[in-house]
Amino acid sequence: MLTGAVVRSLILLVVVVHPSQLVCVDLESETNAVVGNPMKLMCISCMKREEITPKTEVEWSYEPPGQNPITIYRYNERPLPVAGPWHGRLLWNGSKDLQDVSISIRNVTLNDTGKYQCVVSRQFVFDTYKPLFHHSKVIHLVVREEAMEDKAALYSEIMMYVLLVFLTCWLLVEMVYCYRKISRSDEQTQDNATNYLALPSEQRDSLPTPATQ
């Protein structure tokens, strides 16, 4: 059973509309993490013209509550981890075409709560000019010691069992109805045959033979 949490954990949703054409779909990142588990910070920056390959640079920053933001990860032609307390805890989790530029945090701690920002810079090179575009996404991450109960998943499971019970009862009612209908039909046929045999032979000869099932 798919839940909203499972759907949001997808890194990149790609819909095939033609053998040589893919469509990028921007998805929101999960914002709740659990202590000790890995966490994906999703950042998707779709390009309208995918046949053109621009020069792409990515910068991730982290802003603790009440403090100034710091740069924690960079990408410029290759992943570039930044020295400091985040070194060794972050993994590049992006796609080859750099439309998905997500990263993952290893072994999340309570101190990882805060605001994360992903800034994507793309420079396109044409014959006469080189336009530069920027795209940013902010993720407010909350780290908890225990996982929160997914109410949507709970409601979906309850509805599934209610529907299963309803369908089972409906099937039983249909089976009983069909059985009683067949039984009444058999009894009526048997009564007709008995009444036919009880008639004198002269009357039986003048009546059509009763149909049997």
Shape descriptor reads elongated
Structural class: alpha+beta
Distance between the termini: 47 Å
List low-pLDDT spans: 1-21
- The strand line-up of the biggest sheet is 3-11-10-5-6-7
Count of runs of 4 or more consecutive helical residues: 3
Largest sheet: 6 strands, mixed
Can you describe what's shown?
The chain is of the alpha+beta class and 213 residues long. Helix content is 28%, strand content 31%. It has 3 helices and 11 strands; from the N terminus they run αβββββββββββαα. It has helices at 4-8, 151-198, 201-206; strands at 13-18, 21-25, 32-34, 39-41, 55-63, 70-76, 79-81, 90-92, 103-105, 114-123, 132-144. The chain is elongated.
Quick overview:
The chain is of the alpha+beta class and 213 residues long.
List keywords for this structure.
213 residues; alpha+beta; 6-stranded mixed beta sheet; 3-stranded antiparallel beta sheet; 11 strands; 31% strand; disordered N terminus
Lay out the secondary structure.
Blueprint lengths: L3 H5 L4 E6 L2 E5 L6 E3 L4 E3 L13 E9 L6 E7 L2 E3 L8 E3 L10 E3 L8 E10 L8 E13 L6 H48 L2 H6 L7
Parallel strand pairs: 3-11
Antiparallel strand pairs: 1-2, 4-9, 5-6, 5-10, 6-7, 8-9, 10-11
